[in-house]
Design goal:
- Helices cover 26% and strands 21% of the residues.
- It has 211 residues and is an alpha+beta fold.
- It is extended and about 75 Å long.
């Protein structure tokens, strides 16, 4: 899909939505208590503002009980609430959700968007149209435009648009793994160049594997 759009002159952009779940309204009554430190600071703030916190707002351990207006990370329903919030915003901007894959949105101009939680991959007919979309989306959420010229990173994939081809790899993700695991030697995967396997599934030449 990405290659097809690039070869037809579409431009790619990637964006990230900051603190995504916190933008989703809660559908129902959800309460939580603040920990001791948060309760202490809240009580101090209430006192400074002349607000009296009565016992009905405290639990048995004198922790303040609050009702949530927006979703929080860790709530079971937060992912669903966020997806609904983002989908409604995108549909309100003239897009339709793909019935076969709800993570894909498209409009009547053939422009496509791929959504994974708070990471968006945009494919528009021009940079101007992409900028207009990002500008409108920024009215709803805090958006970071993460594209850099002709090189893009999306869900661990490195996407590079060249003059006559498009390159998609996991180089950045793999490099990060190698760094996390320390002094390891990278090797080609799943096999080295000029490797042949006979019909008995035995290697015809020695293969170097990671130590």
């Amino acid at each position: 899909m990405i290659a097809n759009k690039v070869f037809n002159g579409y431009v790619i952009n990637t964006v990230d939505i900051a603190q995504a779940y916190l933008n989703a309204p809660i559908d129902g009554d959800v309460f939580m208590y603040l920990d001791s430190e948060a309760t202490r600071k809240s009580m101090k703030l209430c006192k400074e503002r002349g607000i009296t916190v009565t016992n009905e707002f405290l639990d048995e351990k004198d922790r303040i009980i609050v009702q949530l207006d927006k979703a929080l990370y860790g709530l079971q329903q937060s992912a669903t609430l966020w997806n609904r919030t983002l989908s409604n915003a995108i549909i309100g901007m003239g897009y339709k959700k793909c019935t076969e894959d709800p993570c894909i949105f498209f409009n009547d101009s053939g422009e496509i968007m791929i959504v994974y939680v708070d990471d968006l991959l945009l494919m528009h007919k021009s940079q101007e149209r992409s900028k207009d979309f990002i500008k409108t989306l920024s009215k709803y959420f805090e958006v970071e435009h993460t594209s850099k010229e002709a090189s893009y990173s999306y869900l661990g994939m490195n996407i590079e648009v060249l003059e006559d081809k498009i390159s998609i790899s996991m180089k950045g993700f793999i490099d990060a793994l190698l760094q996390d695991y320390g002094n390891v030697k990278p090797t080609k995967s799943p096999a080295t160049e000029n490797l042949f396997v006979n019909n008995k599934n035995k290697y015809e030449e020695e293969v170097t594997i990671m130590e």
